[in-house]
Amino acid sequence: MGRKPKKKDIAEYLWHSEPTKINATNDNWRIRYGYLDSEGKEHQTTETVNNERAKNQFVSYLLLREKEHKAAKGTTVASKVDKTEIETVEQLLYAYAEHTKYLHTIGDRYGWDEGTYRANIGKIRNYIVPVFGSFPIWKITRVDMRQGFKDMLQLPQANGNHKANGARVSQRTVYDCKKIISRAFKYATDELELITENPMLGVTVKQPKSSRREVWTEEQFNFAYDNCSDPQLKLLISLMVALSSRIGECLALTWSDLYDNEDKHEPSYIRNYKELTYRTEKFIKETNGRGILKVFDQVRSTRPDAKRRAVFHVTKTEKEIEAKTDRIYIAPEVIFMLRDYRLVQNQHKQLAGDSYIDDDLIFAHEDGTHISSQYADDMFRSLYEPLGLPKVDLYSLRHFSITKKLDYNRHDYVSLAKDTAHRQLSTIQDYYETPEDSVRIDTAKAIGKFLSRSGKSDSESKVTISLKDEDFAKKLEEVASDSAGKQMLEFAIAMYEKNNSGK
């Protein structure tokens, strides 16, 4: 981060986040963006502007410079969309939805996986198209957008996973629709170059408040960890905390991803670049298997016409892997646990013989088949429920891990973002970091201690004691050097003098 760069120090602009309003009482906006300096090093910083017009001008400038960077480097994502067929907002939205499937296959963070794709297609069909679908993309304005989102709140809920009960569309759904439209128009301006100005710039929708995920305290975690007797579950918990990873990423770890360098006295690390998830055969065929590293033989059938297969899917782009951002360093203690667990797994191989399915998985059943996230959650639940601990899921361990790492690394968000694969540091602050009251209480005590000492001179901050025993007097002087100890000592002396005043 460092100081704010001057324009002459910026060689190329790389990306920018959506502008965020600093507070509701004024018109100040904050925009985070990434850039390359004259030496080719990548940085990120924020720009604060004090009105909407300045915000739109700065965002337009960033878009122009980012487009120049993409053109120079040839990094614009190729699209198979026929631009001549896109005239209305509806056509743009469905074209963008197909584009996100491609982005997902190359590990792009804006790609939609199969579940997200189905959910967002439902939002487009049921809520966005009825309001905005017929507008020509070059005629729709910010005024139309703002009014459209107000009208969307009056639509009835559509049937989805749950039967609609006649209620209106929620603020959360409208906010999700706004994100879809914003990125679709950004795609139209930056990638397809169908329009010159994004009509969503400056259009805001109230973001609903999200309740924080239930996370164990350090004492609760230690209690569960100490009472865990299952070596597989204990290793899974240890890796989720050590890697700050998602459950699918942990279950996709293979022994070949582990680089055990403890004997070489070098840092050991694990490569975290894929996840274990499920895809229908139809989706695999539609995407030509792009982004899928392995398809498992086992079939999960939810319906006769929708067979789902477990797959390894990439979670990082080739550029991120080349930059070695998929490496997460782990402590020797975790390495020793992995070594011990591998001995247990080798015993399972010997007992199973030829029937063992060896996919090199770290987490597998006794016959070598992969472990599902549902099975892992059930194992975790069987641990904490008998102990009477609060109900949480395995994903909460990611939140717990991030909070502890921030405590240990003195809130170095940049290094932690590499472990968590979050490009925007604000995501960690807003959604993952769980402030602990004990830390805030200790901070308050430290401030009080500082203030009580800073308001007095050195001569006033010590208690002079005259005792025959010089060693004892020295100890008392050490106690008196602390503000809390000084107060206790003064109180003890006062009580002694009071009790012995008549003698």
UniProtKB/TrEMBL annotation:
Keywords: DNA recombination, DNA-binding. The keyword DNA-binding applies. Gene3D superfamilies: 1.10.150.130, Intergrase catalytic core (1.10.443.10). Residues 211-446 form the Tyr recombinase domain. GO terms for molecular function: DNA binding. It comes from the Bacteria. InterPro entries: DNA_brk_join_enz, Integrase-like_cat_sf, Integrase_catalytic, Integrase_recombinase_N, Tyrosine_recombinase_XerCD. SUPFAM superfamilies: DNA breaking-rejoining enzymes (SSF56349). GO terms for biological process: DNA integration; DNA recombination. Belongs to the 'phage' integrase family. This is Tyr recombinase domain-containing protein. The lineage of its organism: Bacteria, Bacillati, Bacillota, Clostridia, Lachnospirales.
